[in-house]
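input
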Amino acid sequence: MAITPTAISLAAVERALAELRRGGIVVLRAEDGTGGLVIAAEACSTPGLQRLQGLAQEAPVLVTTRRRAEAIGMEIPPHIAGGMGDTNKPITLDLPEGVPVDIILRPHEAEGAGRHVALRHLSRPVASHAPVIAQTAIELAKLARLLPAVVLGPLSSDPGNKRREWARDQDLIYVDATDVLDYEESAARNLHQVAQARVPLEGAENTRILAWRPSDGGKEHLAIVVGEINPIEPVLIRLHSECFTGDLLGSLRCDCGVQLRSAIGEIAKQGSGVLLYLAQEGRGIGLVNKLRAYELQDDGFDTIDANEQLGFDADERIYAPAATMLLRMGIKRVRLLTNNPEKISGLTRHGVEVAERVAHSFPANGHNENYLRTKAERAGHLL
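output
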């Protein structure tokens, strides 16, 4: 496969994600000439922080979301960037003196959780530096499936080529802000089929599984094809985001496992269709963060508030990968098994016509009543 500029951009982001996850420093560059050294708060070690402080041209700051900062006890005046109406926009704070950066991991939450953390005296707000860089740094942490909190060492404006050479001299990974912000949509557009095999399933023996991978070798998605597809007619499909706990372990905290198995059964019953198994665990926040959200739910937060307490949006998923797979399979019109209006609009926005919504909901099981109620009342699911 030819190496294209898009493939190079995707690969640069993947390298940056790997570097963040191992506690390394990434150089972010924006088109306006601003830049910054970034290290994930969750993975930040003392040597890593010391190295960043030595390389940065200004005093490093902590960048996170207002909701996350308040969750660990930091008092944030409403007038600074990321105001009260924008609880998940990045805000910039002084690093707490004498306190490990991984304070961002704990407790998981003072507000409403019966816990108290006296951190209010540790942080005072400072002026935001390079909003594009701050926003991109948070997005990079999210893509790495880490908590959205980073230490940012601002870099003053200088010609991009000099910063590029400097980054190489320091053995650092560098990435452009535009590549990070475009990453998910770009990766979705570059999905291509890399494997397929016949996999007879219980209740759906005539089944093939097609594996799709972006050109950077990133997250792989699956198309579970039951029967013989006739793309002339609207195809019955289900978009299913992976759920390790529900799909594999049979967790009763959600309805994912029963939705998965019932969708395959319904598709087989109707003769043919496709279930797209999307690599978007925990509504896109990853398995580790989903378990952290579960801990918050045990403390009284609902499923949406738990995600937001961690600093994420209520739902971080995108449906561009699903649309790409369908269109490349020749499927342009679908009957969609779903109770989530966002899936309908997500497919429509990316060129797939939803000819019909097919209801797909199940009764509570004694453990997930609050979960289902929250999806209906706060997320607009059609239960």
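quick obs: DSSP finds 15 helices and 13 strands in the chain.
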